[in-house]
Amino acid sequence: MKLSFSPEDEAFRREVADWLKENLRGEFEQLKFRGGPGDEHMFAEERQRWEQKLAEGGWTCVGWPKEHGGRGCSIEQQVIFHEEYARAGAPGRVGHIGEGLAGPTIIAFGSEAQQKKYLPGILAGTELWCQGYSEPGAGSDLANVKTRARFDEAKGKWILNGQKVWTSLAQESDYCFVIARTDPESKGHKGLGFFLVSMHQPGIEVRGIQQITGTSEFNEVFFDDAECDAEDIVGQPGDGWKVAMGLLGFERGVSTLGQQMQFQNELNEIVRIAKENGAAQNPAIRQRIAQAHTELKIMRYNSMRMLSGQSGSDGSLQKEALIYKLFWATWHRSLGELAMDVLGPESQILEAAPYELSRLQSMYLFVRSDTIYGGTNEIQRNIIAERGLGMPREPRPA
User: For a designed S-S bond to 237, which of 182, 314, 319, 339 qualifies (C-beta 3.0 to 4.6 A apart)?
Assistant: First the structure.
């Protein structure tokens, strides 16, 4: 495990930091520390312009291979970019699903035609993506999806019918990668396809889901005879599970270090408030702050170990990656509770109309979802037990 960076990497760090300092001003000054969890509804158009500004500077898709338009940055440099991005307070990325999930999956598993069709828009920050995985009856249990895809010979297209749920930023997205069942008689992992679907067509309806924060970044998406070109299935019918699991490897990739820097920003804000309002004089609060700090460092070292063992271009990671989601989700939920206790009575108060939540209030409410999306804590424990420790599978209904 590498815990330090080379002189060349540190020079790269200065390049990233200098560019962000130079460009996060003017029209983009207002975006600092905005657009994160619980705040993704804010400045949607401005953040897409920022995405295109990043592209102009060559700062989108830094880890993609150079032959696909990226910088071909090493793991160390990708970590540095994500850390400095968060350290500078740069806004939440509206293109992160395309850059971090759709793009690497298309590079690893897609055809040359798919790469030429979809990668340029992601690189340029002009085309946004969302993820069509979860369904009302198949949240963490992806193998239980019911959305169907049948091939219409006359049209030469795949026809999709079904419903997806908890689809982040679907209301702003141009495309969605969708897991659907190509064999109506299949069950479980078999008979699935991985489709690249345009969101701008008849037969797709997006309905916002109002969250406890009052915002609607999550959505339900309904497919009613929505169409997908024959060449826009990744791999072959039946390959959907393999492709979907490859994508989840990318989800646990280098952006995790940037996520941790965002966590550090939140912890810094909590410490600042604790010092100002006297909460830091409370021994119990001090102990909880120290515990949060220590566990965040542990999270970083485990992530460095996890990334050091990353193998191949298919997103595969070592078994250490299995614990990451459970650890950070539980930690972040506890951080939200710490924030409210540090704020004290002010955590229950809004200053004046229109009664918008403060940054920490919004974070506290949103982190309740951290232990649910991306695989619930219960599912994560099953994965650790079965895949990591080799324990017997949980009994399933006959």
Answer: 182
